[in-house]
Amino acid sequence: MNTASTTGYLDCLLQGQPEASSLTWLNELRANAVDRVGALTVPTTRDEDWRFTDISPLTKLSFQRAQGVPQLAPATLEQWAIAEAAARLVFVDGIYAPQHSFNHAGLTVENLASGANLHGAAVQAHLGRHAGFERNAFAALNTAFLHDGALIVVPRDMALAAPVHLLFIATRKHAASYPRCLVIAESGSAVTVVEDFVALENEAYFTNAVTEMVLAANAQVHHVRVQRDSAEAFHIANCAVSLAHASRYHSVSVALGARISRHNLGVLLAAEGAECSIDGLALIGGQQLADTHTLIDHAMPQGMSRQLHKCIVDGVARAVFNGNIMVRAGAQRTDSSQSSRNLLLSAKARVDTKPQLEIFADDVKCAHGATVGQLDVDEVFYLRSRGLSDAAARNLLTYAFGAEVIERISVASLRNRLEQAVLAQTQTAAPGAARPS
Q: Which residues of the chain have pLDDT under 50?
């Protein structure tokens, strides 16, 4: 695909932008993003960061921003409801649905369009400041459509045990949606945020999401991201997290759906004593492609990070993992480890994994590793000798491989639901001797 055609495709996606805001700074932010969209192109496999991920099928379809919110019966949402949720924001095809949303006293959980007016200074200080769009066409496109979105502000020293549920429902064929989320966790606060992407029908649509999370000193955020889009959908997401002194960020990301999906996660440990833990699972089959790119940036001393990413790949599907841990000069006494573990269930399944360490300090403890293999034949034999069929033994081992990540989700009802989804999606593995350790 040539540069002219990819630029033209982005121009087509820009059609149907929302009306101007009453906030001058927000209009300027959107205008800057529009300018960047005009200067950028859709990435191709010639770009180093996209060399394993061909998104040309996306550019062969036409997508337009949805207009108007379709009426959904409350019972329709029950299949995705989280019983423990203290607050919920629902977006249908990217449009805020207040009739299906509810709030929590003392906590700001509201639509970004109205929240930007009520919390102008805080929103202006962070919106579009962390998820940079200067060189990212999809982040720029999302910013150009800034209107509806989720705004969460957790007050100082407030610890909320129950989760905040952000539910994004896709209902229309060839619709483009631009989910936006801004989380501001003030000093000493704690919150669990669930981003949940689901679909009513098995249609082709385009989700282009951007999330920014800002943790002040001693704040804690547990971030659960579940992507269970239509098998025909395209899903591209960018998430940027900034950690202040002694703050803690824990992320669990699960990718089950979409024809092509890409998740870019960047975590900046911007002050001493910050900690992050990032867990991910991609469970795909058929002709799916799931790509995860992460950057953990240790910018200051005494930071700690842990990362575990797993892929289970069947059919002719392809998973990509590129995890970069950077330890900058002066970030002494950094403690970081990263593990990429991958399970192939068929002879034609493929995983491209690239764990990376870039270390510019000399007093650090860092490690990384990657494994790719099939089910252990000895473990299959052991289970069969205990009375299980070959298919049951393989399915049990495959489920156990993925369950290690699912179990790290703190929301019980969601964890149980995802365990059932993984069980249902698990398929019989092809014989093989290699074993992911």
A: 1, 4, 428-437
> Per residue in 317-347, pLDDT tens?
999 999 999 999 999 999 999 999 999 999 9
The residue with tokens 């202006």 is 124
User: What pTM was computed for the model?
Assistant: 0.93
Do the beta carbons of residue 175 and residue 204 sit within 8 Å? Answer: no
- The pairing of strands 289-298 and 260-269 is parallel
Structural contact between residues 106 and 128, judged by C-beta atoms closer than 8 angstroms: no
Of the candidates 210, 118, 192, the residue with the CA atom closest to the CA atom of residue 154: 192
For the chain, the C-alpha Rg in angstroms (whole number) is 21
